[in-house]
Amino acid sequence: VGTVWQEFEILPVLKQTMTTLLGHEPPPNPVNPLSLADPVPLDAALEGAGFEFAKGHRETFDINLSFGPSTEDSSFKAILIPVLAKLSEMQNESADGDDVIGKAVAIVKQVAAKRIDNEGNVSLSGVYRN
Questions:
Q1: What was the pLDDT predicted at 94?
Q2: Looking at the predicted structure, is the pLDDT value of residue 1 above 80?
Q3: Which residue among 30, 88, 100, 113 has its CA within the 20 to 30 Å range from the CA of 106?
Q4: Is 67 exposed, middle or buried (CB count within 10 Å of its CB: 0-12, 13-18, 19+)?
Q5: What's the CA dihedral at 47, 53, 58, 64 to 10 degrees?
C-alpha cells in the first residue's frame, strides 16, 4: 500500500514566497512531492516490477493540514520547512546580517493570508492518491 501526492497547496505558497524573497522565480526543488502525480507511468513501473493493484487503487482523498494559529510565527515557519535549509544558507551568506528567515516569515504570512480557516488556523489542502 502506498500513497502519492496529486496536489499540494504548500508548493505554490512556497514558490510565491521564494519568488518574492529572491526577486525572481526560484529553481525547481530537486525533491518534488508531485513527481509521482501522473498515475500512468507510475502504474506501468509498478506493474513491470510485478506489483498487483488492490481495491481502491487510484482512489483520491482530500486532506487539510493545519499548521497552527495564524497569530503564531511558528505556524508560518512550519510552512517554510521544505525551504528552511536554503533560507538558512542565504542568511549565513548575508553580508549585512539580513534576517532572511524573518523576511520569509513576513512574506509567507502575506501569501498564506487567504488560507486561514474559520478557527483562525493556517490551513493548506492537498489531494493524495492510493
A1: 85
A2: no
A3: 30
A4: buried
A5: -110
